[in-house]
């Protein structure tokens, strides 16, 4: 009844409700493509601090479901199209929030990554041997970390957490290489046959 009365009123002015409805729908679709830009600008120029990842994720899912619903039922795009643009804008916002989360997680993981080398270093020191630790693998890891320090400085804009992580790993791998060289020499000297050691001793006495 209300719709019919509105149509009668519009007809008095030579207007059609369907046309006005389509124009309003287009306006909403166009407007929705801009509605999140202030929020995106704030995040880009400042930060995503205080924004809820779960809230924006759920909102993004809701927008996408609404879009799929309208598409599946073959409704005119002007009746649901804003959900598509809002979905894309929210995905960008979620990406910014996740970036901050990833940055924090990566920074917190650096001590764990470096600490993973310490038990092997202490074990080598206690046993005065590197056991079956592969020199080739250890040297390759050392070289790789050194290269990554360079690429982090030159190609990743000197990213501090990344540079610190690779520099620390390179230093600890360097310690392992030093242990391999040191302990392998000692083991080699101890493994000489007894008559070789005797000859060496006689030469020193002479």
UniProtKB/TrEMBL annotation:
This protein's GO CC annotations: membrane
UniProt cross-references to InterPro entries, sorted A to Z: MannP-dilichol_defect-1, PQ-loop_rpt
Membrane-topology annotation of the record: Multi-pass membrane protein
Family: Belongs to the MPDU1 (TC 2.A.43.3) family.
Main location: membrane
Membrane-spanning segments: 12-30, 51-71, 91-112, 133-151, 163-183
Matches recorded under Gene3D superfamilies: 1.20.1280.290
Subcellular location, record wording: Membrane
Name of the protein described by the UniProt record: Mannose-P-dolichol utilization defect 1 protein homolog
Keywords: Membrane, Repeat, Transmembrane, Transmembrane helix, Transport
Entry superkingdom: Eukaryota
